[in-house]
Every structure is written in C-alpha cells, then in structure tokens.
Automatic annotation (TrEMBL):
The keyword Zinc-finger does not apply. This is Transcription factor A, mitochondrial. SUPFAM superfamilies: HMG-box. Residues 44-112, 149-213 form the HMG box domain. It comes from Hypsiglena sp. JMG-2014. Residues 1-16 form the signal peptide. Monomer; binds DNA as a monomer. Homodimer. Component of the mitochondrial transcription initiation complex, composed at least of TFB2M, TFAM and POLRMT. In this complex TFAM recruits POLRMT to the promoter whereas TFB2M induces structural changes in POLRMT to enable promoter opening and trapping of the DNA non-template strand. Upon metabolic stress, forms a complex composed of FOXO3, SIRT3, TFAM and POLRMT. Interacts with TFB1M and TFB2M. Interacts with CLPX; this enhances DNA-binding. The keyword Heme does not apply. InterPro entries: HMG_box_dom, HMG_box_dom_sf, HMGB. Binds to the mitochondrial light strand promoter and functions in mitochondrial transcription regulation. Component of the mitochondrial transcription initiation complex, composed at least of TFB2M, TFAM and POLRMT that is required for basal transcription of mitochondrial DNA. In this complex, TFAM recruits POLRMT to a specific promoter whereas TFB2M induces structural changes in POLRMT to enable promoter opening and trapping of the DNA non-template strand. Required for accurate and efficient promoter recognition by the mitochondrial RNA polymerase. One of its GO terms (biological process) is regulation of transcription by RNA polymerase II. SMART domains: HMG (SM00398). Its main location: mitochondrion.
C-alpha cells in the first residue's frame, strides 16, 4: 500500500529549470488519496468570537449564581446577559477576540508557508469537505422547516425500530448487533412482512413528496426542489394496501 502511494506521488513530481527545481502536480485523485494521511490537527485553531470568550470566562460564575438552571437554560440566560451588557464592557471581550484573531492569522500564514504541496492539497480537501458538510446541514435544516416528508424506511429499519426496546443489551451497539443476527435468522416469509411494510412506506413517502413539491411550487418556493436532498418523482403511485 505504502509503495503504491509513493509511486503515485513520484509520478506527479517533475524536475525543471536550470537549477533542477522540483515541481509537484497534485491531481484531484492524488489529493483524495493522500488527504487521509495528512491531517490539519496540528494547524492553528480558529479563535473564539467575543461572545464565546465572554461565555468561557464567566461560565463558572453564572453556574454558581444560577445552580437551579440546566445547561440549556444557563446558556439562554448568559446569552440574554451578553445582549444587555453595556457596550464599554463588551469592548473588553471584543478586544481579546481581535487580538486572538490577529495572532491566529500570523500563525496560519507561518503554518501554510511550511506545508509541502501534498499537505497543502490535503488541507484544501479538508476545507472543501467541511464547507460541503455545513452546506448540507443548512439545506437539511431548511427542508425540515419547509415540512419535507420523512424518507421511507427499509424493511430492516422497520424491524429494528419495532424490536429495539425489547432486545437485551447494555449498549445500543450491542442491541444493534443482536438485531442484525436476529434479522439474518428470519425466514423469508417473516422478512416478507417487513418488506411489505417497507413498500407501503415507500408509497407513503412518494405520495407525500409529490404533494409537498406541489405546495412548494404553489407557494413560490420551487427553488427548494433543486436542493440536493430532494428527489423528483416521475411515475404516479398507487395508495398503500390496506
């Protein structure tokens, strides 16, 4: 494995110029191949904004002041306090955040200058993946807010949801493993019951999706149908069997 990776890397290296300058062309496939071997864990960490700086410094104080609040309630209360904080007090934390940000930019510039071409490509790939995940999370949140129907479940997923609570096991992982074994040992007629339930759920999803898409178009939000997580339906479907 290591030999193959080195061979691919050497294939992208060329020598040019009168001084024999090494050049490395990192193709997308090579970038993807090496991205898992180079992590940006050693890169400078992005500093906290002013509010989170305030939260970190004052968390223990407000925990003692409001012991009856759980974490969610405490965060809500601290957020309210921050919003009502006088501007001259906020400036203290904003100055800390700005100082940390300036230091971060200097460290990041130094860090980038020391990267070789493969490490630079791996860093870009990690950033691309993070951006894609943030975009997908945002899209999923928007689609949920628009009332997008829940996707249909497979026969195995239906089986798991029906028996998960009754199965013995000390952890979810152990329960899931036990259910996998039970599923493998089911006879074909037993599995057919769940296959029919899955087929009915598929019809439910497709009918609800068609209705939802029509609602989005009627409300002037047909643009959400172009999101990655939506799916255009072509053929009409029948109602689930009763």
């Amino acid at each position: 494995m290591a030999t193959a990776l080195v061979a691919r890397l050497l294939a992208s290296v060329s020598v040019s110029g009168p001084c024999g300058v090494l050049r490395c062309t990192v193709t997308p496939s090579l970038e993807k191949c090496f991205s898992k071997y180079f992590s940006s864990d050693s890169s400078p960490k992005r500093p906290l904004p002013s509010y989170l700086t305030f939260l970190n410094k004052q968390r223990d104080f407000y925990k003692k002041k409001y012991p009856e609040l759980n974490n969610q309630q405490l965060m809500k209360e601290v957020g309210r306090i921050w919003r009502e904080l006088p501007q001259h007090e906020k400036q203290h934390y904003e100055a800390i955040a700005k100082s940390e940000w300036d230091r971060y930019k200097e460290q990041m510039a130094k860090y980038r200058s020391e990267l070789n071409p493969v490490e630079e490509a791996a860093l870009k790939e990690e950033k691309r993946i993070r951006r894609q995940k943030r975009k997908q999370a945002k899209i999923k949140k928007e689609l949920t807010a628009f009332g997008k129907p829940k996707r249909n479940r497979s026969s195995f997923n239906i089986f798991v949801s029906e028996h998960f609570q009754e199965i013995k096991g000390t952890s979810n992982k152990e329960k899931f493993k036990a259910l996998c074994e039970e599923w493998k040992n089911l006879s074909n007629p037993q599995k057919q019951v769940y296959s029919q339930l899955a087929e009915d759920d598929k019809i439910r999803f497709e009918n609800e999706m068609r209705s939802w898409e029509q609602q989005m178009k009627a409300s002037g939000r047909g643009d959400v149908l172009n999101y990655k997580f939506t799916r255009k339906l072509k053929k009409p479907v029948t109602e689930p069997l009763s």
